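Quick board copy: two proteins, each given as sequence then tokens.
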Amino acid sequence: MDTLGRTKQTKRNMKIGNEYISLEITCKRSTNVDPISQDTVEKCIKIALEAHEGQRDRDGNAVILHPLLVGSMGVTDAEKCVGFLHDVVEDTDWTFNDLRNEQIPEEVIDALKLCTHDDSKDYFEYVKQIIDSGNMTAIHVKLNDLRHNIARGKAFGYPDLVAKHEKALLMIEDSLQNK
């Protein structure tokens, strides 16, 4: 971040399993004009920690590591909040009403609704719904989610998941290029 408060991007390599992946880390100075407070960002982290407590992924790692990374990849505070919470309703007992009761902003809940996959819906229809919504917070969070899932899938040997997530990533990237 420079002294004028502009966004700064850096590339870092992160080791997952036996492979290094390249992550773009974007830092943004929070300002008073940002409608989401840092208290709300912290609350979203705390909710995610509580909701995912004790959960393990297919490789035995703490589930919370994924939403923490996806949230950290967010550029805006809304993207961070949605990233931290993106699996809470989908994978735990938490509901959107529970999040409202915690005073999570509707802007965050609206994007979370889009990012929450209902298993009764085809995965690629779900991705198309995110694209068609035009909700840039949901689109950016889904991009971050897919990028991390692709990296994890490659590192831990899940070619079927990598192929599915790469197809979804391409769908979103193509839609953004055509706008």
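And the next:
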Amino acid sequence: MNFILKRKNIYLLIFIYSIIAILSAIYIEKVLGYLPCKLCIYQRIPFLVAIFICFLGYNYFKSDRILITLIITFTLSTALAGYHFGIENGIFDEYAGCTNTNIDITNKEKIIESLGMVKNCKDVEFTILGISLSGLNFLTSLLIVLFSLRALVYEKD
């Protein structure tokens, strides 16, 4: 187990996981036809950033700055996914960008059709084992933060 928790291996695992997460999100959207909301799109950004950070971290694994940057990235990912999961479960109110009601023009239906439907952030259409993708993102991002913090504190090789 200690082999897995080495810094270099953590960067490699997060790199692979980030690629799988991005490709899965694109597959669910483009092939399976599930429309993502704005927060779903925003939740992909930390994974894209993490791919580049992990590439650097794998090559310069002794640098604490790179690991701290990765921890900050996934802390933001945890907060964003937690907020989205809270919206889905009625803990938080949706922000204006998540709803279809923020357009105040006389022919709203035609404008929405021309722009593509804006999906409400509280509507969960796709789940894995009964947990929404934002819930899974929250859990995995939190685990990444915890394992990365452990590597930062205890691994100095």
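Board note added afterward: The mean pLDDT is 81.
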